[in-house]
């Protein structure tokens, strides 16, 4: 399919904009090769592979796509890259936010328009370490996904809703996914069409749609809609680390709770996720006092 181009309206950071779509190192659906970002997706038209690269000398981003979903991916390229996102809507109220935006002026919020693609790995990340969740995502796609169309054979497209539903219980166990998380995924894929409709809703309606499914709470909904909608106010509540990082960066104090984080971010109403993203990009985190939480593996039980 012919290449498409997009001209950013200003400074643009392709890798930080799309990097949030990668689910850990070795993600079978996402890869970086040189200056290119490769992404394998299941679109409403079927599997598709997208390759995106920035051409700073020309001031543009160019993309190619393969597979039945290629046209769908290319038609939505500007939205994916953040054309509809407006970073200027955020007014910096803290020096750290101001400095992070000055140092990273090209970061935009990607909008995939695909809900299950972000919802399922977000469910896998519930109440476990990132390493455990990334391992589960890799194993499930390698065993039950399908080869992505196009020239890169390593990439895998996640299963369709029926494919997820047909994964046997022992395969979930082998991937280290407990019954609570696998059941939540199965509930979601049974109403896949209703889930995907959330990509065309505003943030509050989309959150209600997702959290109507047992096993999908505010944390999972926010992590999903940050990517599917590019929602600038979808702040993650219930995260083990985020309140502590936000609190330490803005006040120097440890042990910030969710309620305290929301109070600190209140001046950024409507842009709280963007503000949190900039704070994370600053790299300021509380010094570690305890060993890293041990990685469990229920597959060995």
TrEMBL record:
Keyword presence, DNA repair: yes
UniProt EC number: 3.2.2.21
Catalytic activity: Hydrolysis of alkylated DNA, releasing 3-methyladenine, 3-methylguanine, 7-methylguanine and 7-methyladenine
Keywords, sorted A to Z: DNA damage, DNA repair
Top enzyme class: hydrolase
Keyword Zinc attached: no
Name of the protein described by the UniProt record: DNA-3-methyladenine glycosylase II
Organism, as annotated: Streptomyces bugieae
